[in-house]
Design goal:
single chain, mainly beta, Immunoglobulin-like, 7-stranded mixed sheet, 5-stranded mixed sheet, 55 strands, about 50% strand, disordered N terminus
């Protein structure tokens, strides 16, 4: 027989696969909140504690955005070009806004969020800063101070009330405190001034020098000190406090970065802000204490290596001191309103130390330490909870109490083995925020036996095979899980059965053996016996069949059935096999010569997505030739390893005239 080439009669399909990506994202600590603001800039911020609303002006966008304490937008007031300074009326009924580009002050109802009035300022150009003192509105414009009284039948505007203070061409920042009647502070251009204000106007009490970089200033609720967001003393960065009587520096609250905001709470607690990518952004100080009680550092939501930064002057207290509000900006120019909770409370540290390992039912000792800037008194109670396999939701143990140095210890006898977690928590108080800590102990457990049959067995394609797990002695848990993980990346590990074993300790599950499969039995463990996992790998042969076409008849030669072809007809052999991506079958040809079969070559052909491949043999053109062929799947050689090697039956054929 003359050797002839083999050609395929089918085209290969192109296979595509897809990968799903899952991203996660992180946010601020659970107690705090952060919400992106739809603004182009931030000019000022005031807080209405009665209705729990935050008002933020956007000079570039010409709007005021109103949010709740969580940052959800409740209203947006537009048509206010250059709106900057904001101030809240004493009864919280109105928010006043200085609209720079129109030279007006407008009032907004805090219930309906509608503009209730607009006031011309007698020619005062570009008002930007605003404060309310005793019901009158004080505003900064150009390098001067003016006032607006709306208490009478007609509004009364008074301009040029600097009273001799020179702010060097800069619009003065303003500060006041509702608890200090008749006092207004102003500062800009390196000058700081304190005024006594009344219906008659502003009387200069004292003026002095300050750094030109001040971004915000405020008055303490006792009226004794003026605080600014920059230390001009030359002794480093900080938040200086000046006496309101002579403007001599009486205190300073140092910081490592560039100060850019200051706000004083109704009880005198100080919130200072600083511009920094790699250090805390907001610093909370008790009055007179240079060491911060608490600090907040913004996360990085932009494309730089450092965190977001505080917008200059964008700090405000909730009147009940439950939060400090801050606005941050990232490198994309995105602004975020951040509500920083429990700002007046120190963050304590609670360390818990347990042995790395212990014996079940034997006493162990857990130690720890509760510390903070303000020491805890001896006898402070901390709550103790033990979590283990028998108490997954936690079991309360007797409280532990601290010693004078904050240390504590307690003893426990763990009834369950495995991972045991001891959590210690302090509920918090007026000075300290809640804090907790934990540590784990690996408590010993006995070993049990777990077996799984059928390991190494080979089965025909599609055979239903029962796998039986046998569990030995345990304490309470008699549940076993049986999983089947077929070879190949497209089939997941699947739970076949999860149930209690029978009285003999057995649990069985059936696997449809269409691929080589890892079968796993899992015992999760219990309080006294350790978990255990065993694996049995069973193998499934590929399913291979071949059909023959183009023959004109079949018949036997001896006891063997042959397909008969005319000598000029091309036989076609169609192989069908269980499909897997990239799979090929081996086409093997042998010729009968001088009483025995001789190999005539083999070649691999890819399967289509329907699992078929048709191979056409070129006709020999002569009669009397006897041959045979078969298709096979060979593990690894056929393009994958998800099945075990399997051979189709030989197909015998001959050629006649």
């Amino acid at each position: 027989m003359r050797r002839r080439s083999i050609s395929t009669a089918t085209a290969l399909a192109v296979l595509f696969s897809s990968v799903a990506l899952v991203a996660g994202a992180t946010g601020p600590a659970a107690a705090d909140s952060a919400k992106v603001l739809s603004v182009k800039s931030v000019g000022d911020m005031v807080v209405d504690g009665n209705r729990q609303r935050v008002y933020i002006s956007d000079p570039t966008g010409g709007r005021i955005v109103v949010t709740d304490y969580a940052g959800a937008v409740k209203a947006t007031l537009t048509g206010l070009p250059g709106v900057t300074g904001l101030a809240l009326s004493a009864d919280s009924g109105q928010v006043y806004a200085a609209v720079k580009d129109t030279g007006r002050i407008v009032s907004v109802d805090t219930v309906t969020y509608t503009q209730t009035a607009g006031y011309d300022l007698a020619g005062a150009l570009a008002p930007t800063t605003l404060e309310v003192v005793d019901g009158r509105l004080w505003f900064g414009y150009g390098s001067r101070i003016g006032s607006l009284d709306v208490s009478g039948a007609e509004p009364v505007v008074k301009l040029d009330q600097n009273a001799g203070a020179d702010f060097s061409g800069a619009t003065p920042l303003l500060g006041a405190d509702p608890a200090v009647p008749g006092v207004l502070v102003a500062g800009a251009g390196g000058r700081l001034a304190v005024y006594d204000v009344s219906a008659e106007g502003a009387a200069l009490r004292v003026q002095g020098s300050m750094d030109t970089g001040v971004k915000q200033l405020d008055l303490t609720p006792d009226g004794a000190q003026v605080l600014t967001s920059w230390d001009g003393s030359g002794n480093g960065y900080g938040f200086p406090a000046y006496s309101s009587t002579d403007l001599e520096e009486v205190a300073s609250y140092p910081t490592e970065a560039y100060p850019n905001a200051i706000a004083v709470a109704p009880d005198g607690t100080i919130a200072g802000g600083s511009f920094s990518w790699y250090a805390p952004d907001v610093h909370i100080h008790r009055a007179g204490d240079p060491k911060p009680t608490r600090q907040y550092e913004f996360p990085n939501t932009g494309d730089s290596s450092g965190g977001d930064v505080l917008v200059p002057g964008a700090l405000a207290w909730a009147p009940d001191r439950s939060r400090v509000f801050a606005v941050s900006e990232n490198t994309y120019g995105t602004f975020t309103l951040r509500a920083l909770t429990d700002p007046t409370k120190e963050l304590a540290a609670l360390k818990v130390s347990a042995p790395a390992s212990a014996e079940r039912a034997k006493k162990l000792t857990v130690t720890g330490k509760l510390t903070s800037k303000t020491a805890f008194p001896a006898g402070t109670a901390v709550k103790v909870t033990r979590t283990d396999v028998e108490s997954p939701s936690g079991k309360a143990l007797p409280n532990a109490t601290t010693k004078a140095d904050g240390t504590f210890s307690f003893a426990d006898t763990p009834p369950a083995g495995g991972k045991v977690t001891y959590k210690v928590a302090y509920a918090g108080d007026a000075t300290h925020a809640p804090v907790s800590g934990s540590d784990t102990v690996q408590v010993s457990r006995k070993a049990t036996s777990l077996t799984l049959n059928r390991n190494g067995n080979v089965y025909a394609y599609g055979a239903d095979v029962s796998f039986t797990a046998h569990l030995g002695t345990t304490y309470k848990n008699r549940v076993v899980e049986i999983y089947a993980n077929p070879y190949g990346s497209d089939k997941p590990n699947k739970l076949l059965k999860k149930a209690k074993v029978n009285s003999q300790g057995n649990l069985s599950a059936t696997v449809d053996m269409t691929r080589d499969t890892d079968v796993t039995a899992v015992f999760a463990g219990d309080a006294r016996y350790a978990s255990k996992t065993v694996k049995s790998t069973a193998y499934a042969k590929a399913k291979v069949s071949v059909s023959v076409s183009k023959h004109y008849r079949t018949g036997k030669i001896g006891s063997t059935t042959y397909y008969y072809f005319r000598k000029n007809t091309d036989p076609v052999f169609t192989t069908t096999m269980n499909y897997y991506a990239g799979r090929k079958h081996r086409f093997e040809l042998e010729v009968y010569y001088q009483g025995s079969w001789h190999a005539s070559g083999s070649e691999y052909f890819a399967l289509g997505t329907n699992g078929q491949s048709a191979v056409r043999l070129e006709a020999p053109g002569e009669a009397g030739i006897r041959a045979r062929m078969r298709s096979s799947y060979l593990n690894d050689s056929s393009g994958d390893n998800v099945n075990s090697t399997a051979h189709g039956t030989w197909k015998y054929f001959t050629f006649t005239n």
